[in-house]
Structure formats: C-alpha cells, structure tokens
Design brief:
By secondary structure, the protein is mainly alpha-helical. The chain contains 4 helices and no strands. Helix content is about 75%, strand content about 0%.
C-alpha cells in the first residue's frame, strides 16, 4: 500500500491521531511563547527552525500519514534540547521548560503509540 494513502485504522487510531495533533500543536505554542517572552533576531530564527516541523507535520498528522509520525519523532529532539537547556540554565523559565519537556515526552509517546496501533500484521 502506498504510504500517502490513508490506511485502515483500528478504533484507537483516530483518538491517538487527535491526541498527537493536540500535543504537537501545544508544543508549537510553547515554542512560540518562548520566542515572544524576549524576542530577538536569534530567538526568532531558532524558534522558526524549531516550530517548522510542527507546522509542516500538523496537516499530515491530521490525515494520518505514517511517515510523518515517524519523522516527527525525530523532530522532537531539538525541542527537548531547548527544554533541558532552559531548565538548567534559566531559573526564570524553569516552569516553561518543565511544560515543554513534559509535552515533548507525551507527544513522543502518542506518535509512537499511533505507529504501533496502525502497524499492519504483515510487518510483524
């Protein structure tokens, strides 16, 4: 089956897809908030780089393309690094960094859970 066509889904897949979309968009909003707290040219550029995968991936998550779920799991790494850095280096942003790290973890779990639920039995 072509990966660009929607697959037959189990009953849990639509709920996981919606939860992953909400978690990814919350992550996008947390990144935008980080940029807006103290805007500078560097923060804007870094924020755009961090947010770009979620802007591109959101419509693909909504439709249910499995490859977008796979590459978005890798796109979470820079956001996790930002959250860890802010948690250690910036006491004022520690609460935000905790929320970001929690959302990165939840988004990762939801993306992987969707991939597991929609895996076909022929790939076992």
């Amino acid at each position: 089956m072509n990966d660009l066509t929607p697959r037959q889904e189990s009953s849990a897949a639509p709920r996981l897809r919606l939860a992953a979309l909400i978690a990814a968009e919350l992550l996008f909003l947390l990144i935008v908030r980080w940029v807006l707290v103290a805007p500078s040219a560097l923060r804007i550029v870094v924020g755009m780089i961090l947010a770009l995968p979620f802007v591109v991936g959101a419509p693909l998550i909504y439709v249910g393309h499995r490859r977008s779920y796979a590459w978005l799991t890798l796109a979470l790494a820079p956001s996790m690094v930002l959250g860890l850095t802010e948690a250690v280096a910036n006491v004022a942003m520690r609460t935000w960094a905790t929320l970001l790290l929690l959302d990165v973890f939840v988004t990762f779990l939801l993306l992987v859970a969707y991939l597991r639920v929609t895996r076909s039995s022929s790939q076992l």
